[in-house]
Design brief:
Order of helices and strands: EEHEHHEHEHEEH
Helix content: 25-40%
Number of helices: 6
Distance between the termini: 28 Å
Length: 212
């Protein structure tokens, strides 16, 4: 059994399996606060680390992310370990991108009820012309994308003409950066954006029928 952080009722009717981004692990403040806002009697949130981050937690040494095949294999392993009738795969940045990549061939191999992507990295910071995210043009599994309006990995303006699949619902967090944090001048607080994100996730989950 892998080391995880579990919040909410173990017997909740919905389970969210939540992966971290490239630079911070499952204990990151963003994931901790979002989990707190989501977890309860109706939703269990399970956070986990990818292998490279587990090693960092043990010895404190910073490492680059594992290669994609390793990240995908770990996602599959975690989804199997924490299988649930209403399982939603969720991830911040890289974690969300890898969750989507599990559906690159259009197959629902994970048997998940849906995907929750928190700030998709549509292009590297140093190379804004190197676009990623083709899977989001063809994915068939219900997907909620939560993206900050001024996310430097893909702003609202940059994505204005992106041909998202009909299965993808996009919600923009007001003036949010990659971690949904707005500027003071926006009149919106970081906490308000996080609460809005949690509300959107709950509303999205409620629209997905239970599989028979």
């Amino acid at each position: 059994m892998h080391e995880v952080i579990r919040e909410g009722a173990v017997d909740a009717p919905v389970r969210i399996l939540l992966a971290h981004g490239a630079g911070a692990g499952m204990e990151h403040a963003f994931l901790a606060e979002l989990s707190r806002l989501l977890a309860g009697p109706d939703i269990e949130v399970v956070r986990f680390n990818f292998p490279y981050m587990s090693k960092r937690a043990l010895d404190g040494k910073r490492r680059p992310p594992d290669r994609q095949p390793v990240l995908l294999a770990h996602w599959r392993q975690m989804a199997k370990e924490f299988a649930h009738p209403r399982l939603f795969l969720a991830g911040k940045s890289m974690g969300g991108r890898m969750a989507a990549e599990l559906y690159q061939d259009g197959e629902d191999e994970m048997n998940a009820a849906g995907l929750l992507i928190l700030g998709y990295p549509f292009h590297p910071l140093a190379n804004p012309d190197r676009w990623r995210g083709d899977v989001l043009k063809q994915i068939k599994t219900p997907t909620l994308l939560l993206q900050g309006e001024r996310d430097t990995f893909g702003t609202r303006a940059e994505l204005a003409d992106f041909p998202f699949s009909p299965a993808v619902s996009v919600h923009w967090l007001t003036d949010g950066d990659h971690g949904f944090k707005p500027r003071k001048s926006s009149g919106v607080s970081e906490q308000e954006n996080l609460r809005q994100a949690a509300g959107q996730i709950k509303n999205f989950i409620a629209t997905i029928p239970t599989r028979t």
